[in-house]
Specification:
The complex is a heterodimer of chains A (about 150) and B (about 775). With about 150 residues, chain A is an alpha+beta fold. Chain A is built from five helices and five strands; from the N terminus they run ββαβββαααα. The termini of chain A are far apart. The mean pLDDT of chain A is about 95. The relative contact order of chain B is 0.13. In chain B, α7 links the parallel β10 and β11. With about 775 residues, chain B is of the alpha+beta class. Chain B has 21 helices and 25 strands. Classes of the chains: A alpha+beta (about 150), B alpha+beta (about 775). The interface between A and B is large, with 54 and 56 residues.
């Protein structure tokens, strides 16, 4: 039995009918076409489905679509502005922090969320904040370099 | 300062803006009108006879469009090596591992497809199963494949020189046994595909693959279609590491279901199925006996290896050869004997994974070399330098080290890690260790016997001029090959990188054997260079005619035409170009003649300018049986130094730092080379410390997820210092060779040697979990006191 929910995704309001067992990642990817959010394990292990839910980075495969009712979500598609790439995206591109790219959406959102909450994080703070996002290609080194290189507001 | 204008620099990868914004399309991001969803019925038993299959309930379920079994698929055998094709699309007489494919369903949605799978009734007669090498080789053990008695899938016996004679003359002989564990590639994107069969009988398969070409051939062969009717297209791929380097049952099932229904059919593995399908690194058990002279000169290696193969051959024939042949270098080794056995059992098949066949062998041997160095009281670095080959040396098994910056790599990591200040001077619990390794830069022969080119490339200049379109069937799977080839094309044509647009991963673009055996930079790179030079020549030939200037007096650089002698009047050409572009406000008005104008003029003279390129290695290697595995036009090599801390109370190992030097020939894209080095280290570190696919007594994978199967996270990885050593490889395009797999070779033994340096205990079994290390420490203590 589907249920209507209201939610905000990338500053846009949506009213959608969802199944009670439908996950947020499936809603985003298959119902709304926001395929930038990836699905690597469906168990909350890999972090490739990371989105920012009310200011917190979460695995969208562990969130039911129903739980997103009335809440605000940012996905990778919402990062770019009219002026081009978000500074975190720019840093990932410039530093070579992206190889296959399958983890990148989640990795970038986790990094963005960290930087939103803490400017100039230390290396260990970066490692802790991004430890839930698995990457098998890069060895993480250039990802850390990228996060460190993002220009900080202060 | 580089002599090049595009390559040998740090280029921003052409694919990463799309990947950073979520725009890059991977297979599961695709949908098609009328698309159906497919699901597989896979065996719950490890070994059983199929008595009967009843699909009637599944077929009658509303929403189900097709159910296929071996009855529909036929029994064409396939696999990787044609001599050992031992799989059929669906099992027909028996199942051989938990996960073996029995049937597939296509339905209007995934829920219905899964429901239909659960309605297929299979009656099994369970057979006794074997799960280890010992069980599988026991007299009277159940046999998996009737034509392979004793469950011996493959055996290799080779000897170069005379090992027994050489050992008799040695001053020190050392024997050790070493074992790694079955690894999973743990790429983040599970395999998936969409097959679409059209009304004209053309089949298009979109797939998360490393090898569109081999998949095209396998699909055509198994489903009995002309190869020309099958097109394989690779969207962006979430990495492969070898596991996506052959056709899989998903691809074949989706194609068959699409042919049956006339609709596009999408299929995916979930994470559990990724583990269940396997095809990643084998478990190897190596026993090596090395003989040396007092001064450390290596004289002979006697090597016995058993590979835990799983239920089918997959890449395993090549694996069992590689496990022996990749010890031929990089040290001078005059005598080498190898006996290798790959054994079938009722677990998922193992296959090829980064550093194919060579990683555990390298770990075993490099640790043993350290043990020998210690006994001879020679430093590990000195022992290695003493025996190191140099460019031009040929191994006893006929591998030609046409370039080899190995000594430079050793010096680089020695300096880069401050080895001299640290070795022997670290406190207890801290250790430093080093190791070397090398790897092929592309398999010298295709997987199927053929005179085919290994890569063909087309460079077409846009008719209006100014942009070069590169078409290659090669596979960008994350390593950065699209950017590498765009850079090579730009350099060879003489234009800017932004003036190149590249399309790849489509069998309609030509032949390319794909992303495996670290082949693309050298092999596809050659073909790209040749195609771009061909296009360049055609443009210059037209200019030569138009301007009456010999071709050799002209050059193209930075998308501008350079005239080497005197003032050449090209105003006529410029006027022609401008007249065709009335209304444009960016027509070149003054300054040098541009490539944009020149390529337009060339088109006006000859029609479309299309350059073609191709590459096939020269005849390589020896004439002995198995000589094709390990032979390559070039070899990349590397040295690494690991620094570790071992907590002796808990056995916990922390890797503090890795210093890594790799000789990749000329680095085309410096950033991508570093990326391959850093990624290799993380995969090696995972295999050394954490990774093991585990099974229960019935053959089920018990850690088929990324929580219980542990790959390194950002908290596990140390700082890596990467140093690129550039030799000039005579057989590589612009002197370039591999980095993708060679870079993993020294990681595990460097960590093993560092752990010994820290605690004085040798570990001969991976992964080095706290439990294993703790017990080894206790065992050593007992030995000392008892």
């Amino acid at each position: 039995m589907k249920k209507l929910i209201n939610l905000t995704i990338n500053d846009q309001h949506y009213e959608v009918a969802v199944e009670p067992n439908q996950t947020l990642v499936d809603l985003l990817r298959y119902q709304l076409g926001l395929t930038g959010t990836k699905k690597g394990c469906e168990m909350g292990d890999c972090g490739s489905c990371t989105v920012i839910l009310d200011g917190k980075a979460v695995n969208s495969c562990l969130v039911l679509a129903l739980q997103a009712d009335g809440r605000s979500i940012q996905t990778i598609e919402g990062l770019e502005t009219g002026e081009g790439l978000h500074p975190v995206q720019e840093a990932f591109v410039e530093k070579g922090a992206i190889q296959c790219g399958f983890c990148s959406s989640g990795m970038i959102l986790s990094a963005k969320n960290l930087l939103d909450q803490k400017s100039n994080p230390s290396e260990i703070e970066i490692r802790r904040a991004l430890a839930g996002n698995l990457c098998r290609c890069t060895g993480y080194q250039k990802i850390i370099e990228a996060v460190k290189s993002v220009p900080q507001a202060n | 300062m580089s002599e090049y204008t595009v390559i040998n620099s740090r280029a921003v990868r052409v694919d990463t803006p799309d990947k950073a914004t979520g725009k890059a399309v991977f297979i599961d991001d695709m949908t098609m009108p009328g698309m159906l969803y497919g699901a597989l019925l896979q065996s719950p038993l490890a070994h059983a006879r199929i008595v009967s299959i009843d699909t009637s309930k599944a077929r009658n379920l509303p929403g189900v469009k097709s159910v296929v079994t071996a009855a529909e698929a036929g029994l064409v055998k396939y696999g990787v090596s044609p001599a050992r094709y031992d799989e059929t699309l669906f099992c027909h007489e028996k199942v051989r591992y938990v996960g073996d494919d029995i049937a597939a369903v296509a339905a209007v949605d995934m829920e219905t497809a899964l429901k239909a799978v659960s309605l297929i009734e299979v009656e099994y007669e369970e057979l006794p199963a074997v799960f280890t090498i010992e069980e599988a080789m026991k007299a009277g053990a159940p046999v998996l494949h009737d034509n392979y008695p004793g469950n011996i899938c493959a055996e290799v016996h080779s000897e170069f020189g005379n090992v027994e004679e050489a050992l008799a003359d040695c001053d020190l002989i050392k024997t050790t046994t070493f074992q790694n564990k079955r690894q999973d590639a743990a790429f983040i994107e599970p395999q998936g595909c969409i097959a679409s069969y059209d009304l004209s009988g053309n089949l298009t398969l979109y797939s998360s693959t490393q090898v569109p070409h081999y998949v095209q051939r396998t699909v055509a062969m198994v489903l009995k279609l002309p190869v020309g009717k099958v097109r394989v297209v690779k969207p962006y791929v979430g990495a492969g590491f070898g596991i996506k380097a052959s056709a899989n049952p998903l691809e074949l099932s989706a194609c068959l279901l699409s042919m049956k229904t006339g609709k596009p059919v999408k299929m995916n593995y979930n994470r559990e199925q990724v583990f269940q399908y396997g095809r990643a690194r084998h478990q190897f058990t190596h026993t090596m006996t090395t003989g040396v002279k007092k001064d450390g000169t290596i004289m002979a290696l006697k090597h016995l290896c058993y590979l835990d193969g799983g239920a089918y051959s997959s890449f395993g024939i090549a694996t069992v050869y590689y496990a022996g042949s990749l010890l031929g270098g990089p040290y001078k080794l005059p005598n080498m004997k190898y006996d290798g056995y790959r054994i079938y059992n009722n677990k998922p098949a193992c296959g090829a994974m980064r550093g194919h066949g060579g990683v555990a062998a390298r770990a075993c041997w490099e640790q043993q070399l350290d043990m020998i160095a210690e006994e001879l009281k020679i430093s590990p670095i000195e022992l290695r330098l003493k025996n190191m080959m140099v460019a031009g040396d040929v191994t006893c098994n006929d591998l030609n080290m046409s370039s080899l910056g190995m000594k430079e790599c050793i010096e680089a990591v020695k300096d880069g890690s401050e080895w001299t200040a640290k070795k022997g001077k670290l406190p207890k619990g801290k250790g430093i260790g080093m190791a070397c390794g090398f790897f092929v830069s592309g398999a010298g022969y295709p997987i199927y016997r053929s005179d085919t080119f290994h890569g063909t490339v087309i460079v077409k200049l846009t008719e209006d001029g100014g942009t070069a379109l590169v078409y290659t069937a090669s596979a960008e799977i994350g390593q950065g090959s699209d950017t590498t080839f765009a850079m090579i094309a730009a350099e060879a044509l003489g234009i800017r990188l932004e003036d190149v647009r590249l399309e790849s991963g489509d069998t309609d673009f030509g032949v390319d054997l794909g992303a495996y055996s670290s082949r693309q930079t050298l092999m596809t790179g050659h073909a790209v260079k040749e195609a771009a030079e061909d296009a360049r020549r055609q443009v210059l030939e037209v200019l030569a005619k138009e301007l009456n200037v010999p071709v050799e007096n002209m050059d193209i650089k930075n998308s501008l035409i350079e005239f080497k002698q005197g003032n050449v009047d090209f105003t006529g050409l410029r006027t022609r170009y401008s007249k065709e572009h009335r209304g444009w406000n960016d027509n070149p008005a003054d300054g040098p003649l541009t490539f944009r104008e020149a390529s337009r003029i060339a088109y006006l003279s000859k029609g479309s300018i299309v350059g073609t390129g191709k590459y096939k290695p020269p005849e390589l290697g020896g004439k002995y049986k198995g000589a094709t595995v390990g032979t390559s036009p070039a070899y990349g090599c590397s040295a690494q130094i690991a620094e570790v801390t071992v907590d002796e109370e808990t056995g916990q190992i922390t890797v503090d730092r890795i210093t890594d030097a790799h000789d990749c020939g000329l680095a085309i894209n410096v950033t991508s080379v570093e990326g391959q080095m850093e990624g290799s280290v993380s995969m090696g570190l995972g295999e050394a410390l954490f990774e093991e696919v585990k099974f229960d007594k019935k053959g089920h994978v018990i850690n088929a997820d990324l929580a219980e199967y542990k790959i390194p996270t950002m908290l596990d990885m140390p700082q890596i210092k990467t140093i690129i050593v550039e030799s000039n490889e005579p057989n590589g395009p612009f002197g370039a060779k591999e980095v993708g797999e060679g870079a993993i070779m020294p990681t595990i033994p460097a960590i093993l040697n560092a752990v010994y340096d820290a605690i004085g205990v040798r570990i001969h079994e991976l992964p080095m979990t706290p439990e294993r290390v703790y017990l080894a420490i206790q065992e050593a203590k007992k030995g000392k006191t008892g």
